[in-house]
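## tool: complex_structure
## caller: assistant
## args:
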Amino acid sequence: MQGLTYLVVAYVIVWVGLLAYLGVVMLRIRGVRTELAAVKELVREQQEKRS
Amino acid sequence: MALARQDTNVKRRDASGPGQAERFPIVSMVLLALTFIGMMISIWMIFLYAPTDAIEGDAQRIFYFHLPSAIIGMLSLGIVALGGIVYLWKKDERWDWVARAAAELGTVFLTFALITGSIWGRTTWGTWWTWDARLTTTLILWFIYIGYLMLRSYMGRTPASARAGAVLAIIGLIDVPIIYESVNWWRTLHPQAVLPLGSSPQLPLEMLLTLVVAFITFTLLFSFLMVQLYQLEKMQTLAQQLRASVE
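## result:
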């Protein structure tokens, strides 16, 4: 029975860890997309001012 | 997209057309779906199909996630080193993105391998950790990854950072064959290789099939995450270059 407990703990750690990591990666991607859009807008504004 | 055609070849490649950008979500979706299906089959095989080990009992089933995590964690450093070598050779930034993405994933998978191995060790050896040759060399690899990530983070997205990372990965790669051979070179507590190179596997068929399915699933998961992190690296570099152009 003790082996089963360790087995469950190991799989829970892996699953929770993987899902948490996946969530962090998705949040990072969303953050960079937002930043990229903002910087592109800034560059566009600068180019319009120059022209 | 005209914005992206300012300085570097990276931006020129990025502006090569909408088709390339649209393909990635499809690849990601396919990989994610295959990973999900693979995980479901793996879980069924691990808990219901594979027989219970006569000596280790249920705790042996940890092995089906532990081994693929460890193998992918080790092979990732090969991808990091390969990315570094090609970057040093061609000076193509895309290879550096591959190296950075693989280093992060290698750290994640190797962390899972160390944690699951430690839990298995507690049930079988009665201790969470021992300074066994296999465990110690694997921990050294984990520190190499951490060192790589710290170095890249500290030096930023510069050519010098990419070169330093490539050199570190190439030198660090020496540890991978040492890990593999550690159970043969030294007297260790860690079990011998169940999939020895050049000879037949040391496992019953059901266990071997379960291991193969779990390994394929972890490879799919790794591929899915690689695509995501590669895209992330690409966008971060583009954002940094655009930001630099307006400052």
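## assistant note: The radius of gyration of chain B is 21 Å. The longest helix of chain B spans residues 205-246. Handing back to user.
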